[in-house]
Amino acid sequence: MIGIRQKLTPARRVMLFFALAFGISWSVWFLMRAAAIQPTLGPNFSTSLGYLLLAIGIAGPSWAALLVTHLASGQGDSRDLIRRFLRWRVPRRWYVIALGMPLFLALIAALLYTLAGGSGLVLEFLPLIGLVPQFLWTIILGGPLEEELGWRGFAFPRMQAMTSALKSSLIIGVVWGLWHAPLFLLPGSTQYGLVAQQPPALAILQFVWFVVSTTALSVLIGWVVTRAGGSVPIAMVLHAASNTGYSLLAVLGVYAAWQVQVLYPGLVVLAAVLVAVTQGTHLKGG
User: Fold this and answer.
1) Does residue 228 have a pLDDT over 90?
2) If you write DSSP's letter for every residue of 110-160 in order, what string do you get?
3) Predicted TM-score (pTM) above 0.85
4) What is the total count of domains within the chain?
5) Among 23, 30, 42, 204, which has the minimal tally of Cβ within 10 Å of its Cβ?
C-alpha cells in the first residue's frame, strides 16, 4: 500500500480517479446496452434491475474516489474527503444561490421563448409545488448524491492544488460531459431521449452542446463550492437544481420546444462566462 502511495503523484491520482470513474460507469452502462436492460421509470422504478444498474453506474465517480483514497492516499486524505462530504454548514446565501440560480435561468428561458412568440406556457400552482419532491428525488436518486463525492469531493480539490479553480472546473466539466456518453446510447435514459429519432448529425450536435453546457455547469459548481469552503452538499444542491430546472420547464409546458432546449443550457453557459470573467481570478482556495 505504501509503495502505491509513493509512486502515485497527485496528478496521477486524479488520472487514476478519472480512469476508474469511466471504467466502472461505462462497464455497467454498456452491459445494460448489450443485455437490452432499460432503466424504466414507473411506480416501482427504484426496485427494478434497470434502475439499480443505472444507479450503480451513476455512482462510478464516488466508487472511484473511495477506491483511490483507500489504495493511494493516507488517512489525512480520507478524513478530508469525509469532511467535505459532510460540510453542510455554510453561509445560507450559498444555498440560496445554488438552489435559485438554475431555476431562475430556467424561468428566464421559458419567458424569453414566450416573448419571442412561443406557445404553450402554463402557470399552475399545484404542479409548481410538485417540484419540491422532484428536487428531493433528484438530489438523492438522480445523480448528485451518487456523483459529487467524486467530482467535487475528490477530483476538484486535488486539481485546485495544481492549478486554478477555474481551470479545474473546465477540465472536470469536459470529463464529466464525456463520462455521460454511453447514456446517449442507452434506451430509457434521459440522455437517450435527447437524441432519439434524430439524424446522426443532429444527435452529434446535441451531444456536443450537452458537453458544453455540462462544462459551464461545472464552472458554476466550482465557483459555489470554492466560496462555500469546499462543501460537497452545496455541489449536490446546485447539481440537483440544474436538473430540476428541466422539470420546471416541463411544468411550465415548454420543455418540448427545441428553442427552450437551447435557451436554458445557453443561459447556463452565459452565467458561467460571467462568473469566469468576474470571479475566475479569485477562485484559488479549496
Assistant:
1) yes
2) HHHHHHTT-------HHHHHTHHHHHHHHHHHSSHHHHHIIIIIIIHHHHH
3) yes
4) 1
5) 42
